[in-house]
Amino acid sequence: MKVLVLGATGGTGRLIVRDAVAKGHSVVALVRSVASAALPDAGIIEGDVRNEATIARAMDGCDAVVSALGTGMGRRKVDLLTVATRSMITAMTRNGVRRLVCVSALGAGDSRGHGGFVFDRLFLPLLLSEAYKDKERQEAAIRASLLDWVLVRPAMLTDDPARGNARAITDLARVKGGKIARADVAQFVVDQLTTDTYLRRTPVLMW
């Protein structure tokens, strides 16, 4: 399978590229700067992820798209995910690419209030409120699309080695925060390229 990865230079994105290649997929990464990409296993295309024509060019011949785009902390308004996702959906629809796996986060959408006391009461309102508004607009656009999507919501990310025992949770009744390694998230994301287990669902990942 040929896969376009957006956000491939981020901490999780790099691991997604590595795992996808290890599992036999061909990877194309759309990056802001070729000079700083350092992704030896992927084909690199330089461009703006917010531009529909650029995304369409990058996904030429691809069978699926993975979005690992993210925004930083802070109180300033951001719309990278909103704009890039709308452009991505339009480009995928026009080019007949249906499979989309998108990395969101625990605390977005209907998982709000399940991040644990410190996250829900302090980090989210003080440091992540604008970023999460952007994530929620991203999720809403994906849900409204006709694509074959999976929205993956990791708990708090760590740089620990993969444990291989990640839990994918869709019933959030007892979820109150948690952790998960980026490496485990990457493996789960790549697995969703070839299975329909969580098609049009929003699994939360944690140990």
Automatic annotation (TrEMBL):
Membrane-traversing stretches: none
Pfam families tied to this protein: NAD_binding_10
Gene3D superfamilies (UniProt xref): NAD(P)-binding Rossmann-like Domain (3.40.50.720)
InterPro entries linked to this entry: NAD(P)-bd_dom, NAD(P)-bd_dom_sf
CDD domains: BVR-B_like_SDR_a
Ranges where the NAD(P)-binding domain occurs: 7-195
Name the record gives this protein: Flavin reductase
Origin species: Caballeronia sordidicola (Burkholderia sordidicola)
